[in-house]
Model the fold of this input.
Amino acid sequence: MTIIFLNGCTSSGKSSIAAALQARLVAPYLRMGIDDAFSTVPPKYHQHKEGFFFDRDERGLVRLNMGPVGRAALRAHRHGASAAARSGANLILDEVLLPGMLADWLALLDGLDVFMAGVRCELGELERREIARGDRMTGQARGQFDLVHADVVYDIEVDTTRSDAEASAAAIAAKVESGTSADAVRRMRRLFTDK
Done:
């Protein structure tokens, strides 16, 4: 089975691209994402030191933190995605790779057919979208901007600054359905091994 792993900042358009991919791709793909993991946590653990909470990092930027309940939810999400793929489901993963997550994902994706798709967007546009959405803590995009693509290798990258979800989905679908082998995960595993 195939996994299309969309990685990018909050408000970069990943969820819209995922929906467009589901409509466009010939084979059926299930969609899972980091927001699903957040939604599994009881509301009393949002903005709570045991669950998920925001503060400011050493740069003075908004940072997502996780306590034991939050870490367990994200770990369960990653393992669940791996199990779904291994049980025969094609997946589109809508993710934000924050520091400390990549190594676990690489281990869990080992042996699976994974297309890594980087979803980029200029910071000013991310901040505009973040405010317009009204459902994100303002400042998350700026806090994530220099982190989510660090050490990540992609099979394809799209820039949603001036491109809509349909065009980005078309480019990703063409790559996935071209018969070209995805090798970004293999290259990242080698990079991590060489460190």
Remarks:
- DSSP finds eight helices and seven strands in the chain.
- The beta strands are 2-7, 30-33, 52-56, 62-66, 91-95, 113-120, 156-159.
